[in-house]
Amino acid sequence: MSLPLTDLKRRNAKPHHHNPVPNTKRDDEEGGFDGSSFTGAVFNLSTTIVGAGIMALPAAVKQLGLIPGLVMIVICAMITESSIMILLRFTHASKSSTYSGVVLDAYGGVGRFFLLLCIIFNNMGMLVVYMVIIGDVFSGTWSEGVQYSGVLDEWFGQRYWSTRPILLFLITIFVFIPLASFRRVDSLRYTSALSVALAIVFVVITTGLTIVKFFNGSIGMPHLMPKLTNDESFWKLFTTIPILVTAYICHHNVHPIENELKDTSHMNAIVRTSLILCTSVYIATSIFGILLFGDNIQDDVLANFDGDLGVPYSTFLNDVVRVSYGLHLILVFPIVFFSLRLNLDGLLFPHAIPLAFDNKRFCFVTIILMAFVFVGANYVPSIWCAFQFIGATTAISVGYIFPAAIALKDNRGVATKKDKLLSLLVIVLAVSCSTIAICSNLYTFSNKTTLHVA
After folding, report:
1. Which CATH number belongs to the domain containing residue 448 in this structure?
2. Disulfide-capable partner of 252 in 140, 265, 339, 383 (CB 3.0 to 4.6 Å)?
3. What distance in Å separates the CA atoms of residue 55 and residue 62, rounded to the nearest whole number?
């Protein structure tokens, strides 16, 4: 049996580095793997980026104002590109093959421990949110005493198999677990390509609806700048930061994707191509979402596709958008789960053989994580506030603070003055914006609680 490409890289790593990178399956079907392609890597990284955040971006941009909002999307993309490039340079300099290995090289075991915790909490929170939204789309939900029907209830009526727990259980057993059984991230390239295509379907439909309503004369002028009526509205602007940050977090999957490349010199181009693709989707979604719904746009724009759109075939288009988005999240789930499993295994079993070579450990970690996500999606009363705090803390840490801290430490001497200056600026902005966002969320939450009690 020949060693997979990722294991060859492990030989060059320092002995104390734990690199929980994916390996190939040892069956005949995948035995001839000689590296992933450029296109497959772009689809996998793009799918990691475009998750549930796409639906929250239009409301965030509306709150910031169209011009500042679009500028912030581009700035976040540029900062993300810089942080990943810094991470890759230090990866090669330290001869590591994982994100945690780079942090271990710079800040030792303590730094690695906190990074793994951040990735685990971030990915776990994202997966719970994905499963909740999937349940909302297909099975419906209750909000403030009002029931919103799911797509399946509207099509087939209420059935036992369309209830949230049963439906999510069936999706977990017949979709999530089979897709999570792959030992190599490149095996998800086709589902990732379909996931990106489904996200583009939403953009195309939103664009088409906007054009139709524009010629009907029912499109209003959007707010180009933020509406600041009082101090609260100003501080509320900072609550958009976690949404913008979460929309670009993909750092935890950069190394698994690079480790499987046929030619690792293409990784920089893969990162830039993925970011350009996702930024284009984000900008189009934000512009046409705001033009289409104006001030009536919901925090989750998917909620706007639950009524009359004022165009022919409105019900059909609503269903297409909701189903395509639900399927999109179903296909995003395994790529995020892949990274979650690797990093949890790296935290629990730092000195064990690669996870893909231990079937019992692979199955154990997979089943435990699936069970936690399933329980969280079905029985946790409210995860939205927790997700906002995760976005303002762990997501910012994984995407920006850790790469910037690695560049500032520069124990390998590869960071330029520009890198260090940018890293210092990123840390200051990340910590300050995160703190303000958390305080603003707490203030808003306390006000809602007070009003509810009153």
Report:
1. 1.20.1740.10
2. 339
3. 13
What residue has token string 């994100």? 99
How does 366-379 read in b/e, with b if 16+ C-beta sit within 10 Å? beebbeebbebbee
- Beta-carbon contacts of residue 452 (< 8 Å; ≥ 6 apart): none
Decide if 201 is inside a domain: yes
Query: How buried is residue 437: exposed, middle or buried, by Cβ count under 10 Å (0-12/13-18/19+)?
Result: buried
What would the two tokens of residue 21 be? 């990178």
Give the tens place of pLDDT for each residue, 173-229.
Answer: 999 999 999 988 989 999 999 999 999 998 999 899 888 888 887 777 777 787 777
Task: Give dist(CA 140, CA 150) in Å, integer.
Answer: 4
CA distance 442 to 361: 40
Residue 73, in any domain of the structure: yes
CB contact at 8 A, 250 and 45: yes
168 found inside a domain: yes
Q: Could you tell me if 343 and 252 are in contact, meaning their C-beta atoms sit under 8 angstroms apart?
A: yes
**Domain span including residue 432:** 38-453
Q: What span, in angstroms and rounded, lies between the C-alpha atoms of 335 and 338? A: 5
Helix, coil or strand: residue 52: coil
End-to-end CA gap in the chain: 69
* N residues, the chain: 454
User: pLDDT class for 327, splitting at 50, 70, 90?
Assistant: very high
* pTM for this predicted structure: 0.85
Crossing angle of helices 189-215 and 267-293, rounded to 10°: 30
Q: What gap in Å lies between CA 134 and CA 365, rounded to an integer?
A: 23
**Contact at 8 Å (CB) between 25 and 356?**
yes
Q: Tell me the residue type at 139.
A: S
- Distance, in Å, from the CA atom of 125 to the CA atom of 377, rounded to the nearest integer, reads 10
**Residue type for 208, please?**
G
Residues 52-84 pLDDT 10s: 678 788 888 888 888 998 999 999 999 999 999
CA distance 94 to 78: 24
Task: With residue 141 as reference, give the H or E element that holds it.
Answer: strand 140-143
Classify residue 6: in a domain, yes or no: no
User: Is the Cβ–Cβ distance between 91 and 339 less than 8 Å?
Assistant: no
In three-state secondary structure terms, 328 is helix
Asked if 235 and 443 count as a contact pair (C-beta separation under 8 A), the reply is yes
- The residues, ordered by sequence, that sit 6+ positions from 138 with a Cβ below 8 Å of its Cβ are 150, 151, 152, 162, 167, 326
Task: Give the number of domains in the chain.
Answer: 1
Q: What are phi and psi of 159, to 5 degrees?
A: -130, 155
CB atoms within 10 A of CB 90: 25
